[in-house]
Amino acid sequence: MVDLGAGTEQDFYGADAKGKTVLVSVADVTKAHDQAVRAAAAGAVAVIVAPAEPGPSGSGVPAGQTVPVAHATYDNAAELKALLAKSQVRIALKGVLESGYTYASHFTDDRVPADLAKTVAVTDFAKIRNTYHSDGARRLGAEYLPAWGPKQWTAIADGQPLYQGTSRDDYFLAGTGVSYMPSVTANFHASAWTVADARSTFGTPGRTYTRSWFAGPTRLSPYEFGPCVFCRTDVWQKLPGGLGADNEPTHTLRGLTNTWSFYLNGQPITGFGQLVPEKADYRYVLDQELATDVPGVNLGRQLRTEWYFSQAAPTIMAVKDCDTAFIPTPKVCEPMPVVLLDYDLPLNELNQARAGLPYAFTVDGARAKGWTGTAAMAGAKVSVSYDDGATWKSTTVLRKDSNSFQALLRHPEIADTNGYVTLKTEVWDAAGSRTVQTITRAYALK
User: Fold this and answer.
1) Beta bridge partners of 196
2) Fewer CB in a 10 Å sphere around the end CB: N or C, the chain?
């Protein structure tokens, strides 16, 4: 090991760091990017970052590091420096890509207990088997876990780096009344591509749950807090917020920009103010794309959804609570007869499917929240592209049930593709409503 002070350019100048572990002491251990870069350039094999002053240390992952970076406390670093002053110090570092398990915090009602130690057994916990998907290769992201005690208005949050393309078992102490709202970002240094779960409480010890994150394909989120989505009143219309989603129904994905286009009887209109009272044909188009480039995010960065439907102005209050949830208060409210799409694709942890082999996946047609009529679908069509939509190939579509269909295809050899599969899906009902959705690079091939 070699101690290089604060790790400045001057500290590294003339120092022999090749093949060694570099110890640096900095004011903010979460900002050691420059030190890691200098250490790698000097031929170091690892870096240990410690705080320059006594106190809480924390940790951080330098962006783009090419050598392992570990963290030490102020006291640990002082001990290492004392040993180094006496003789040569050899360091053995062992890293674990992902622990494979975590244990969540817990709270005690009403007061801080006299004894902060608590003895628990595995049977006191609820177990969540998490699979963190990635896009063709493992990537370093982060997980955030806000937690609320039974009488708390504000959350206590914890965050940590998280490799994706892995699985992990999380244990939550059950029956405490604590609620959690986890979120996962795709890149440790950028929060532009983040999946958040709904707030939940684990009341039953011993139960096992499964949850996946970033499982492809990216699709428009069906999750809605209000009484309806895609509903029309006499004073406004309610449309989706444009959040994305993975394959968990309570997940929302932030990071997409949204551009709406509206058409009445084939002609463009500006929106609600140009809807007509008589029954007419409408086409609503939502173009979504990743707002900023996020390293490691290669899939689902661009979506286009087109809803075709016919409707007249509403005449009754057909949606419960529609007249109390939004302002201005409407007198009438009816859902739009649109078709929503969802998918179930068998993909690995890297959102990949095998090239050169047969493949099958499920497409579902559904109705928006607030709909009370039939959910049955009349038919479906699915096409795939291996060149980002320049050319298309139809799949064989079989009916599974009243609103689900199975697409059957055979992937070409990966050399005959760009490494990705773009999906175009169309589902329609017997009344003439249909939805066409294109997901560019929905999943990867391997």
Assistant:
1) 183, 252
2) C
Backbone dihedral region for residue 386 (phi beyond 0: left; psi -120 to 50: alpha; all else: beta): alpha
Same domain, 278 and 361: yes
What CATH number does residue 232 fall under?
A: 2.60.40.10
Domain containing 60 — which CATH number? 3.50.30.30
Q: List pLDDT tens digits, range 48-85.
A: 999 999 977 667 777 767 899 998 999 999 999 999 99
The one-letter amino acid code at 105 reads S
- The pLDDT score that the predictor gives to residue 108 is 67
Amino acid at 16: D
- What pLDDT, on a 0 to 100 scale, did the predictor assign at position 241? 87
Q: Are 172 and 105 in contact (CB under 8 A)?
A: no
Q: SS3 of 81, please?
A: helix
Is 80 exceeded by the pLDDT of residue 185?
yes
Relative to beta strand 179-180, strand 237-238 is unpaired
Look at residue 423 and give its three-state secondary structure: strand
Maximum alpha-carbon separation in the chain: 90
Chain segment 234-255, per-residue pLDDT in tens: 999 999 988 999 999 889 999 9
Q: Are residues 321 and 186 in the same domain?
A: no
**Helical spans, DSSP H, in 246-390:** 322-325
Same domain, 19 and 146: no
Residues forming a β-bridge with 259: 287
Gap between the Cα atoms of 321 and 329, Å rounded:
11
Contact 217, 442 (CB under 8 A): yes
Task: Encode 156-171: b = buried (16+ Cβ within 10 Å), e = exposed.
Answer: eeeeeebbbbbebebb
Q: 320-378 pLDDT, tens per residue? A: 999 988 889 999 999 999 999 999 999 999 999 999 999 999 999 999 988 988 999 99
Contact between 445 and 356 (Cβ < 8 Å): no
The confidence score (pLDDT) of residue 109 equals 67
What pTM does this model have? 0.88
Report cis status (omega within 30 of 0) of the bond before 328.
yes
Q: Name the E strands within 61-178.
A: 69-71, 101-103, 125-132, 139-148, 156-164, 166-173
Q: How far apart are CA 187 and CA 327, in angstroms?
A: 38
Helices and strands, counts by H and E, the chain:
4, 33
Provide the pLDDT confidence category of residue 414 given band limits of 50, 70 and 90: very high
